[in-house]
Amino acid sequence: MAQGTPFRFEGPVAPELLIDRQEELGTLGRRAGDRVGVRLAAPRRYGKTSLLLAHAAQLRETGWRTAHVDFSRVTDMTDAARRVVAAYAPLDSAWMRAHLSGLLGRLGLSVGTAGASVTVGPRPAAPDPEAAEAVMYRLLDLPKTLWERDETSTLVIFDEFQDLLVARQDLDGLLRSVIQYHGDAAAYVYAGSEPSMMRGLFDARERPLFGQADPLALGRLPLEDTLADLAGRFEAEALDPGEALGELAVFADGHPQRVMLLCYLLAEQLAAGRPGTPETAARVLDEALERTQAAHQALWGQLSRSEKVVLAGAADGVAPASRALAAEHRLSRQTLHEAADRLVDQGHLAREKTGVRLIAPLLAEWLRRR
Question: Nearest-CA neighbor of 30 among 150, 142, 187, 154?
Fold first, then answer.
């Protein structure tokens, strides 16, 4: 099961392994056809990148070029420029060699003559923000240059877009100053996992990208579709998940990565000869908690006291600003309400009509067992 498992839980999954998401793919396709920008916000490990890879694959089948820039944990202007170079090189490596070789060398990069390979050397000893900015300006306009040559459009995906501002606070302005003239040449998707920062980039009037992208939310996987899809995968592996599959799917609560992790562990148990019973499901859950304990402990250590109170309460189904919770911990309801807002902004809680919901099911179970 280590290679080629149908229960991939690390990294993006191939388009054929996506569960549901047809509606979202349809929306992305229509927006691209209309050249309307999209901002896609969802918690981490919720399948954003997998969805966007499937979107790009669909457009490539119709003749589009595509580029996927990952800004996750970008550190500075040089780092941002190097990532754009790596993503844009497949669009036209010959153009990059002809027009940017000198600047790329100042960033520790070179474009090979075979294919679209980028050689990433050591970072320069001293930062060269001027070269990095010049590369960004020139490359961001490459989709327009290519359109003027052959009228082939380009899909550009900026993943973990909110991290771009870590490199420089005005980079969204630099980006808009170039791409606002692209018209039919390109369609853009901005994906992020920090809801508050994404809203700030697109909903604040003072930001350059205000109103420049339609919002698209990525919700939980529907239980019925999830069960049907996963049952088929177990059948293809000649494994009978029994009642265990239903219990684990319900527990995962529509979380894409966590349901895959649980199914991967269940498949291991079944392959070892254990039956698909509730007892086996409990064993799988214990193993999943053991695997994720370090991550949960690290998050817990980063939270303030009020955030810990709210998160633990949410795991038990207690409203964040309830009088009982405030009295028990001797905190004001306003303090708890503000803590809940921060946890929502960070992608740990989701606000729903019935109250708040802890997004990560394994984190919720870890909190209940503390």
Answer: 187
pLDDT for 105 beyond 50: yes
pLDDT for residue 66 is more than 90: yes
Please name the residues in contact with 365: beta carbons below 8 A apart, sequence gap of 6 or more: 251, 285, 289, 315
Contacts of 2 (CB under 8 A, 6+ apart): none
Parallel/antiparallel/unpaired status of strands 65-70 and 349-352:
unpaired
- For the record, the structure tokens of 39 come out as 């901002």
Among candidate residues 35, 82, 80, 81, the one with its CA nearest the CA of residue 59: 35
Q: Phi and psi at residue 5, in whole multiples of 5°?
A: -65, 140
The pLDDT-based confidence of 102 (bands split at 50, 70, 90) is confident
**CA nearest 325: which of 343, 297, 342, 306?**
306
Q: Are 190 and 213 in contact (CB under 8 A)?
A: yes
Q: Is 183 exposed, middle or buried (0-12, 13-18, 19+ CB in 10 A)?
A: exposed
Q: Are 240 and 267 in contact (CB under 8 A)?
A: no
Q: pTM of this prediction?
A: 0.88
